[in-house]
Amino acid sequence: MDQIEELMQKSIELGKAIAQSDIYKDFKKAEYDLFQDAEARKLVEDLQKMKNEHRGKLMAGIEITKEEEEKIQELEKTCIRNRQVLASNQANTNFQEFMEQISGNIKNGIKSIDK
């Protein structure tokens, strides 16, 4: 097995280990629970739709009105008040931070050899 193949195999093993971690399992459960809750799912879908519309307007050079900005802020507040959305958001944040730590460790490993 050459060096590249070995690294690819190790990355697959790392992925499997991540998938078996509690932080990943919590993330997937929160995601599943969110999509099983019709109200929470609709809130998140509406927020994503609104954010995409805003992004499209900005890319087209169309200014977002104060009313539109206030509407998205209110929807964000409504989402955070929903227990399931909040739990899903927290689990997602925890998982993303975990992945950033792993990426940082990989970078530190590379830097330790570059010295």
Strand count:
0
Shape: extended
Based on secondary structure, the structural category is mainly alpha
Instruction: Describe the largest sheet.
Output: none
Order of helices and strands: HHHHH
Strand residue content: under 5%
List segments where confidence is low: pLDDT < 50 over at least 5 consecutive residues. none
Q: In DSSP terms, counting alpha (H) and pi (I) runs of 4 or more, how many helices?
A: 5
Mean pLDDT: 94
Structural Rg: 20 Å
The residue fraction in helices comes out at over 70%
State the end-to-end CA separation: 27 Å
Q: What would your notes on this structure say?
A:
This protein is mainly α and 115 residues long. Helix content is 89%, strand content 0%. Helix 2 (22-36) runs antiparallel to helix 5 (83-114). The model has no long low-confidence stretch (mean pLDDT 94).
Entry summary:
This protein is 89% helix and 0% strand. It has 5 helices and no strands.
Question: How are the SSEs ordered, and which strands pair?
Answer:
Blueprint lengths: L2 H17 L2 H15 L1 H22 L6 H16 L1 H32 L1
Helix pairs in contact: 2-5, 3-4
Core attributes:
single chain; mainly alpha; 0% strand; extended
